[in-house]
Amino acid sequence: MFRKVSTLRQTVGCALRINAIRNVHYEQGQSPEPKIREYFYYIDHQGQLFLDDAKMKNFTSCFKEKDFLQFFFKRVKFNNTGRYEEDFPYVSPCGRERNYIRCDDLPIVFTQILETADGEPDLLSCNHTGDKLTLTFDPEKVCMLPETGRIYHPAGDRVGGVGLIKSALAIELSKYFEFSPDKEFEPPVYFTWKGHRYSLTNELIPSLKKMDKFKSPAYVPEI
Question: N or C: the chain end with fewer CB closer than 10 Å?
Answer without folding.
Answer: C
